[in-house]
Design goal:
Elements (H helix, E strand, L loop, with lengths): L1 H10 L2 H9 L2 H14 L6 H23 L4 H7 L1 H33 L11 H18 L1 H29 L16 H12 L7 H16 L5 H29 L11 H16 L3 H35 L9 H25 L5 H29 L11 H28 L3 H18 L1
Helix pairs in contact: 2-8, 2-10, 2-11, 2-13, 3-9, 3-11, 4-10, 4-11, 4-15, 4-16, 5-6, 5-15, 6-7, 6-12, 6-13, 6-14, 6-15, 7-8, 7-13, 7-14, 8-11, 8-13, 9-15, 9-16, 10-13, 12-13, 13-14, 15-16
Length: about 450
């Protein structure tokens, strides 16, 4: 039995890296806030959005299993425009998403370890520290260390999350507080939250490219190409596992925080305290290390995997553009990876300093990052679909008629949602009462900066 479990875990790799990148802001922050603000009303949207986006996440590892190469080769086969589209979107989103996940990670760490950090150094100083730790780990070990760390972190997260949900359901099955859940798509705040919630669920769409590249790296490590059946099993473990975890986080928010006196804060340290304290107040002090470890490992895994994915995928892009091999470690490949890694660190630090005087910096950075991911999702969906239909894929491995119809319908829904979001957020704009409510905050922020 133990040998069977060990063998199964040994066969898992890129799927757990996918889970490490996916289970982060979308789960710990957005899913918890969805439950805290709306109870269980948004619960079924989690499996629905997974169904809609499923083909495009699947295409990443599937392309590698069929061709032995990462899906960026499929982009390149469509034309240089496709590869440059990916590079452009990545350069735009890289630092925003990295800043968002790292700020949340550092905020949880500060609260969990009760670090006494002066307000003037929050949130940028601890965030920079976590960013540097992750960068050093990746500089030394790259894929092999990342692969081993993710297996430990994701297993720990899964176990602690299941225990937490079960404990709350047993002790307070009806929830800690009473409240009537309501959601109105016509309300600006509800519509904006829904867009952010679904836009980064289960993760930014470019994670499909990361998964493909990690699968290629796993093949290099093992010395053989993983068969399609094994690759899809690995993918399904990560994909469906993260969907279940998202529903668990939403349920925890609904059970413990919905109807309570406090709403989830946009300030990193405050939200971290709320996240941990709401569970300990319901379950007792014994739950503090359980929830703290689950939250911290979740976000550090996301920080680590995102910081690895951006330089790794851009490294592959540059090698492809130079017509060099990407299926083995090259001198140029290592140089590109290290260069982009530290550029990403430097630019993310710039984002930290640009937002350090903003009240609720975590909320601002997370919101901007989720919006950018939401708008870019249809572009990645189209690129992945065209790559799987392209000339690099054997005819028998191309999407079936059912999958083609699924993809086209999903692309239409993603594109329509993005257009509607842009219209509501930037053309129609918030109602006058929302604008008026923001004026005092802006005045306070301006006075503080002076």
């Amino acid at each position: 039995m133990l040998s069977k479990i060990k063998n199964t875990l040994g066969n898992l790799g890129p799927g757990l890296l996918y889970a490490g990148a996916a289970v982060g802001v979308s789960h710990l922050v957005m899913s918890t806030q969805a439950g805290a603000n709306y109870g269980y009303l948004l619960l079924l949207l989690i499996p629905l959005v997974h169904v809609i986006k499923y083909p495009f996440y699947r295409f990443g590892p599937e392309y590698t299993a069929v061709t032995g190469k990462n899906i960026l080769h499929g982009y390149n086969a469509l034309g240089k425009w496709a590869l440059w589209t990916y590079i452009s979107i990545t350069l735009i989103t890289m630092c925003l998403i990295q800043a968002a996940v790292t700020i949340v990670t550092s905020s949880i760490a500060v609260e969990f370890f009760k670090l006494n950090i002066p307000k003037d150094y929050m949130p940028h100083v601890p965030a920079i520290a976590f960013l540097l730790i992750a960068a050093v780990v990746l500089s030394i070990g790259r894929y092999s260390i990342l692969d081993k760390l993710m297996k430990i972190i994701i297993i720990l997260l899964t176990i602690t999350t299941i225990i937490a949900v079960t404990s709350v359901l047993v002790t307070t099955p009806g929830g800690v507080y009473d409240g009537q859940a309501s959601f109105d798509l016509g309300k600006y705040a509800d519509a904006m939250f829904l867009a952010a919630f679904l836009g980064w669920m289960p993760a930014p769409m470019d994670i499909s490219v990361w998964h493909s590249v990690w699968s290629e790296e796993a093949n290099i490590e093992s010395g053989e190409k993983a068969p399609l059946k094994k690759a899809m099993f690995d993918f399904n473990i990560g994909f469906y596992g993260t969907a279940c975890l998202a529903m668990c986080f939403l349920a925890l928010g609904a059970l413990v925080m919905f109807g309570g006196p406090d709403k989830p804060s946009s300030k990193g340290p405050v939200f971290a305290a709320q996240l941990i304290d709401m569970y300990t107040s319901a379950l007792g002090s014994w739950a503090y290390p359980l929830i703290g470890i689950a939250a911290l490992t979740t976000m550090f895994s996301t920080t680590l995997t995102c910081l690895d994915a951006y330089p790794r995928t851009l490294e592959k892009c540059f090698l492809i553009l130079k017509n060099e091999k990407t299926d083995e470690e090259t001198t140029d490949g290592k140089k590109y990876y290290q260069t982009v890694l530290w550029i990403a660190v430097a630019l993310t630090v710039v984002v930290f300093f640009m937002t350090k005087h903003i009240d609720g910096a975590m909320g601002v950075v997370v919101k901007v990052a989720t919006v950018v991911s939401f708008i870019s999702a249809p572009k990645f969906a189209i690129l992945n679909y065209l790559a799987m239909k392209g000339k690099t894929i054997p005819e028998e491995s191309k999407p079936s008629s059912l999958m083609k119809g699924w993809c086209l319908l999903a692309i239409i829904l993603l594109f329509f949602s993005s257009v509607m979001y842009v219209y509501v957020a930037f053309v129609k704009g918030p109602p006058e009462d929302v604008k008026a409510a923001k004026v005092p905050q802006q005045q306070e922020l301006k006075s503080a900066s002076n």
